[in-house]
Input
Amino acid sequence: MMDAAQHAPNWFERTDDGGAGCYVHLPFCDRICPYCDFAVVSYRAALVDRYVEALVAEIERSKANDDFPSSQTHALQTLYFGGGTPSALPPAALGRVTRALFERFDTSPGSIEFTLEANPSRNVEDVGMWLEMGVNRLSIGVQSFDDGELHRLGRSHDAKDAATFVRAARTAGFANISLDVIAGVPGQTRESLRRSLAAALELEPTHLSVYALTIESGTPYERWHRRDASAFPNDDAVASLLESAHETLARAGFVHYEISNFARPGFASAHNYGYWRQRECFAFGLSAAGYRDGTRYVNLRALDAYCAAVERGASPAQSREHLDGAARAGEAAMLALRTSQGIDYADFARRFAIDARTAWARASRKCMAAGLLEVDERGMRLTSAGRLLANTVCAEFLEPANHAVAVTP
Ligand code: SF4
Output
């Protein structure tokens, strides 16, 4: 087996709280999957041209006319092209956006973790150009290696296409490859998920994301679910699928470092780690969500509205919310609990000058009694049962007690 650690730097260890990430949303997809609730647009060349113009303008303008001046000085640590299907864009369009970003942040290719989401349905011939652009991490949406499941997911690739795509990426020189797999597909069993994960592991990824399928309102899947809920694995069956994924991947040497994410040592996603650490995050493109100077903001979700706002020189932000100290600490606790590190008392004392034991005494007692949380002298983290009910646990931690004892960091 390839020793991937010899071929890629550990961006994760280079990421610290003083830097910033950048997310760029590229919403175009060849076809819209029936379960998808992301901000997506059917691919049309004319729309791509208009969107790329607007995106580059938003990026360039952000330097001279930035609403968050104090975060101007943060060095860029990670760049993430998500979507949508970023790999569907022609390399010339991706290159244009990338150049604008590297110029905007005074960054050079190869100095940061740069992830591109790719769909294995097409454009395998572009992988070499993505490398030349500075992309050094691919996140490939394989979703399953069972052709029946892929068909039910409405995907335009089959298992063979996915394997061919991953091998081509590796041959071209990508050492850091993440594969997405879905748990809870109609008709999926523990055995079919185990086979999909075995097929994924044969391709030697450095990282795997296993997402539980959620039924999003307004999607064709929601209508299917309403007509025939028995076609879908129920909550217990999904929990059992996720447990079996954890067992399979742990046996294969992957670290379960976040609820949905597994990595070979040294290959956790530095970009996502930044989200879970409340790192500053620039965001460009429609529906993109950023975090700057304690303010969360989200851009307009409709393509025409987003482009029109940028074209008339206005901000494409649709909403902004400034988090006060308590809200920041509450959010940080919820985000930290998603990770295997959990809430680290020393870290929270340093970042927020609070004693996390006092701040979340009631929440931690309640969750420990339910077997969802474990606590020791260093901090608190989810148990395996807690990982399956993470949203319930995290909701308990939203608000720190207002009598929380202040500590000197
Ligand atoms: S390829 Fe991904 S982003 Fe595009 S429609 Fe399907 S699930 Fe949504």
Observations:
- Residues 29, 32-33, 36, 38, 40, 83-85, 119, 141 surround iron/sulfur cluster (CB under 6 Å).
- Residues 326 and 380 are 19 Å apart (CA to CA).
- The longest helix spans residues 45-64.
